[in-house]
Amino acid sequence: MQVSHVEAVDTQAPPLPWSAVWGQDAAVDTLREAASDPFAMTHAWLITGPPGSGRSTLAQAFAAALIAEPGDEQVMRQVLAGTHPDLTALRAEGVVITIKDARALVERSYFAPSAGRFRVMVVEDADRMVERTSNVLLKALEEPPERTVWVLCAPSEADLLPTIRSRVRTLRLREPDVADVAALIARRTGADAAVAEQSARHAQRHIGMAQRLATDADARRRRDETLRGVVGVRGVGDAVAVAGRIVQLATEDAKALTAERDEAERASLLRTVGVAEGARVPPAVRGQLNALEDEQKRRATRSLRDGIDRVLTDLQSLFRDVVMLQHGRAEGLINLELEAELRGLAGAWTPGHTLTVLDRLGETRRNLEQNAAPVLALESMLITVTTGRTP
């Protein structure tokens, strides 16, 4: 536990642009030092760490330190807001980063900085590049222009091709403790300490997810319903029903995340082209509106798949708890609220059965990455839960 560290963050917040970075002091020190002498540093970086560890926040802060002159807080804030012309940040709005997007990024990387000291190219989801797309970046990473810096973000080095890894300097982030995340969430959101602790534990220290759970009772309800449904599976019929319900809940979660943004984008587009709220959309604007809706649909597909992936992560925590109980360890359980049910499973199953279920969860995740139908993939996985056998 490092509660003292959290308290230090409260009273000694680092200056811009690093003030939004939390719990990554060693990484901040490395990048601050690099930014202090940028013309002698590595020009291609890879920031790795588990989801929620702050990879994108750190990349944005590094970009601000590189683009702005030292002490120029106005430019730093512009970079942190994502509006500076010398920052290009790519995040996969669809399931993967497309070759088209990668080529556009590489082309832009060869432009000289227009206003700042450097042009910075941030790829927030570098693990979402297939091999062909990764190959588009290779030359640009190996020999970037003198005043261009690449910053890739991914969960781990293993998520990228060896040819990419050999061209970057890797910076690994630390995982915060549950108590640290809970203290941060309580401070940021004003959530009750017990809710903040539960949210940090259920999110497995993912800061963004913990904040959402702490502030969204519906998200907490959906998670609880999903896990209790899986624990209650007793046969094939249950597996089919629960799989369908998981996808329904994940869809609701995805809609909750994207609906407000989608509506704001639509209103902004109509306002930009001079269409009043509630007015009929003229034919000349429909093409732009259709293009926006197509992009939003692709983003919704990604959001749904991310939501199902998050369900699988929650289920892994569930069966990880069962394994711990089967080996006589009750400390450090993630799903304390289900301890009685988990003890029942631990007594009814063999450790081998539990490990089979965990293996099946990993296989299900890989199948979904290959565009397997979510309901069918989850049904197959849940049949393994109830029978211990792979269909």
Protein architecture, described:
- The two termini are 43 Å apart.
- It is built from 16 helices and 5 strands.
- The protein folds into 3 domains: 3-172, 3-Layer(aba) Sandwich (Rossmann fold), CATH 3.40.50.300; 178-215; 236-257 and 296-387, Zinc Finger, Delta Prime, domain 3 (Up-down Bundle).
- The chain has 391 residues and is of the alpha/beta class.
- The protein is globular.
- Helix 10 (207-215) crosses helix 11 (217-231) and helix 11 (217-231) packs across helix 13.
The CATH H-level superfamily of the largest domain is: P-loop containing nucleotide triphosphate hydrolases
Uncertain stretches: 1-11
Provide the CATH top-level class of the largest domain: Alpha Beta
* CATH architecture level-2 label of the largest domain: 3-Layer(aba) Sandwich
Mean pLDDT: 87
- What percentage of the residues does DSSP assign to strands (E)? 5-15%
Could you list some keywords that capture this structure?
391 residues, 61% helix, Rossmann fold, globular, 5-stranded parallel beta sheet, Zinc Finger, Delta Prime, domain 3, 3 domains, disordered N terminus, alpha/beta, single chain
